[in-house]
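REVIEWER CHECKLIST
Item 1: Sequence provided? yes
Item 2: Single chain? yes
Item 3: Sequence as submitted:
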Amino acid sequence: MLIHWTDFFEDLQTVRGRSLNTVMAYRRDLELYADFVESKLPTSHIYEFFKKRSLSPRSQARVVSSIRTYLKFCETQGQKCPELRELRQPKMSKALPKALTTDQFYELQKAAVTDDPSQTLRNQLTLSLLFGSGCRVSELINLDTADYNYIERWIKLTGKAGKQRLVPLTEFLVQAINIYLETVRPSLIREKSDTLLINDRGHRPSRIDIWRWLSAWSKKAGFEETISPHQLRHGCATALLDSGADLRSIQMLLGHTSIQTTQIYTSVSNQHLRESIDTFHPLSQNSNLSSKNSELTIQTLNRTNSSPPVDMGGGSSQANPTIISPSENSKSETRP
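Item 4: Structure as written out by the authors:
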């Protein structure tokens, strides 16, 4: 057992206000670190230890972050931790988030249809809330009926560290929630509860419920991989950015503490822009005009290469480059 084990987890939960899922993630990471400490290997060998445990670079970075947080806490308790200076985050490339497209969202909506109309409306509302509000799966399952304000058209989401934010809703989402609350929720619920969404057992859904539903709908829709809740969140942000929303508004919607976290969606949007240009621009490699333009360029180059050398009067067969003076340049035709 590591020193200050109990104190650290009490600090995480009561002082820092970390969620139960976050606390459990820290516990798993530190249990792995405890195994490393017992191995008596020097700190410099920790990444070799991780590789033998088949941890990906991203998982290694998460574990190291957890260890550093724990060691910093130990130092506040008067413990000397030289390992803190030796542990460095591994270098890894930042992968762009996989965003769900609007077409994929509609395919999921179709796949969420069941023989039970109540379950169908519940399923489609689940997807609409994830894609329409950009909420995290933990924020979704913790939604209560009291968090919905149909008059002012917003829902209150409780994010990381208990931070709350009001997210405005579209008219479509307001109508969908109203229909669900009036006709669907009463038929699904088994006991008195404040939860907004109801699972198949009549209770508050868990993260596993959401993942299980998405897995089934993804398979039914014909997707090669299961669509994750975060892909719906990424899809919401990317769709807003593509439609002209500013980063600050998207940051507030998603509940990001730093604008730098939100800026990653500009890379996704720029990638989409590049793909659109390659596909639709008349000068792209895929267009007929581009092919004709390339043929004209090649013909021009061939004619230039086959032309006899110009005699500049100096007995040299090599043409000198033409230098345009500032005065000559000012007389030339101005190009837009």
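Item 5: Key structural point noted by reviewer: The two ends are 72 Å apart (CA to CA).
Item 6: Recommendation: ____
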